Amino acid sequence: MFDLIKELFRFRRFKPSQGVLTRRLTAFGVFIIFASGAYRFFITSPSLPFVSGSPEVARIATGIVAIAIILAGAWFAFRLVNWSTFANFLVSVEGEMEKVSWPSREELYSSTVVVLVFFVILAGMILFFDLAWMTIFKIIRVIP
Using CA atoms, how far apart are residues 62 and 142, in angstroms rounded to an integer? Predict the structure, then answer.
């Protein structure tokens, strides 16, 4: 954890040419989390306790805090994907994803049909056993 805190105050990029797509998508995901939190803060925050004055001033102050959250999130996302431990992990993930054999459209379709049919049959069996046990319990008056 201390390494991550130390890493937040560096300006260098770690292995900038490796794992580019995975690192960009991860940084974008982290940024979206911060941006949605800042948006939620801006929308739901009635006023800040340290701001006095008109509601317009309080709204502007809330907007400034939300923008600060977005900027801090962007910096954190950039530094996170350049933290050596995490960057090495992301580079490894991208390398492993290149080894994956992805199914064709026909294989995907047939596998989806098999799974859906299996779940429909399973749901039917559960319904049958549920109704059978409920009927048995009603006959022996365990349930009204």
Answer: 60
Sequence spans of domains, the chain: 2-100, 103-144
**C-alpha torsion 26→29→30→32, nearest 10:** 160
Residue, of 80 and 111, whose pLDDT is higher: 111
The pTM of this model reads 0.64
Output the pLDDT for position 50: 65
Tokens 């006023």 map to which residue? Answer: 47
What is the Cα–Cα distance from 138 to 144, expressed in whole angstroms?
A: 6
Residue 120 vs residues 130, 132, 134: alpha-carbon distances, Å: 15, 18, 21
Closest by Cα among 31, 36, 17 to 76: 31
For Cα atoms 99, 105, 108, give the angle at the middle one, nearest 5 degrees.
80
DSSP 3-26: HHHHHTT--PPSSTTSSHHHHHHH
Check residue 82 and report its DSSP letter: T
Token look-up 């950039």 returns 78
pLDDT at residue 44, rounded to an integer: 84
